[in-house]
Amino acid sequence: MAAASKPAVWSDSGDAPFEDVDATPVYARGKGGKRKSKGSGNEGLEIFKTIFFALLIALVLRVLLFQPFTIPSASMEPNLYEGDYIVVSKWTYGYSKHSIPFSPPVFDGRIMLPGVSHEPRRGDIVVFKLPRDNETDYIKRLIGLPGDRIQMIDNVLFINGTAVRDVEMSRQDVQNLYGTQLTIQLRETLPEGRQINIQDWGPGNISDNTPVFEVPAGHYFMIGDNRDNSQDSRYDRSAGVGYVPAENLIGKAEIILFSWSPGASLWNPVSWFSKIRPSRFFTVLD
């Protein structure tokens, strides 16, 4: 008759193949027959570490790659509407102190990434810090580069003495705070050949005729696409934007991620569906 097989012997290191420590036989729990479970202190530390690294990753993404913004006004119609939720690329123009939350004075100027970053281009939709306070985020279209001469004459944009060619796309009467007003949409062709859509309220508005603006070195001239409803570089920095220093640029607007009509509220779930504008989702900005 064959000898009875010997019972399994567990090692002294407590490496019995059980997933649940409490279900492991006492004789298999290692030295002293007991095995300590992790205390609440260790669990709290793990939770803290998880939250810390999640916030660190979010901060790195926000500083180095992308930053979201919500459009608060109509100054960029017909391309951006109030309630559009956009994403801005941070690496496109390099990094300044304003690329970092709260704009800490850690360095001056811009840090460019070789082969990745480039100088801003005419026609880009740009997010920047308002020069008069260096805190408020603004979004406009870059029209004037350093050294350019910019002027509006009889509702026509002139760049370096040459009128920007435009073609009327549509016109309609719209209701606003001032009653019924004619709204015209045009397509402009900038000197480099880039085409942009703009909106105009017809002649007779305060910004239809301006002096010549000579853009200083290291600065840019910004205009809203809604030409008669935009406080931009055509207005002195005390009331509008003025010239925008290169250091104040945050990034280039790339895409409309989501969009809700005005009136949508985080605290009103019904408005998430009643105010949604799905036709504007994932619209690439030019």
Question: What is the CA-atom radius of gyration, in angstroms?
Answer: 30 Å
Q: Into which percent range does the helicity of residues fall?
A: 10-25%
Q: What is the number of beta strands?
A: 15
* Average pLDDT figure: 85
Question: Which term fits the overall shape?
Answer: globular
Poorly predicted spans: 7-21
What class do helices, strands and sheet pairing give? mainly beta
Order of helices and strands: HEEEEEEEEEEEEEEHE
**Biggest pleated-sheet summary:** 8 strands, antiparallel
β-strand percent reads 25-35%
Short recap of the structure:
With 286 residues, the protein is mainly beta. The chain has helices at residues 40-64, 269-274; strands at residues 66-70, 84-89, 125-129, 137-144, 149-153, 156-159, 162-163, 165-176, 179-189, 195-200, 213-214, 219-223, 244-245, 249-259, 283-284. Strands 1, 2, 3, 4, 12, 13, 14 and 15 form an eight-stranded antiparallel β-sheet that branches. It has a four-stranded antiparallel β-sheet with strand order 7-6-5-11, with no helix packed on it.
